[in-house]
Amino acid sequence: MSLNRATCGLKPKEVNQFKINLTAELAEHQHQAEKACAEKRVDKENAKTDSSVRAFAFDLKQCFPTPYLKTSVSFYKRQLWSFNLTIHDLATNKATCYMWDETIGARGANQIASCLWHFCNSLPSEVKELIFYSDTCGGQNKNNAEAMMFMFLINNHPTLQKINHKLILSGHTHNGV
Fold it and tell me: PANTHER family given for it (predicted)?
């Protein structure tokens, strides 16, 4: 039997129960992940066949220094950080990127909501339903700023009737972006 913080001081019977509980939690987690992937496939197919429905996955990509330098002396100098929000159309497999640097804005909720606002307002007029997939990053995707932006959009957009924002289960954020 190996010892770790979770099992240290537990009796063998308690350790076995602990392992059983962990195994059950893992199975439930994997079931939820598979269920989310199946739902995403259905949304993707629906977006392919119905022009009034659009499905997208979006993610803020890894920040990168500008300019990108490999020489050792310049690598340790202060560089400008650039950000890239990518919105991937699940039906057409096309991507839209919003890029900015740290002098323009940060990488928080307001910036992500602004990019999504701009993106949604450029969609064709026949779109009535939007489905978004993203990770559960609270500072960028799972927050009041984005929820309020979606509410404002649905109340002020001439054709939108429904917006779904589906958050990918933590650890399974390979969401096609």
Answer: DNA-DIRECTED RNA POLYMERASES I, II, AND III SUBUNIT RPABC2, PTHR10773:SF19
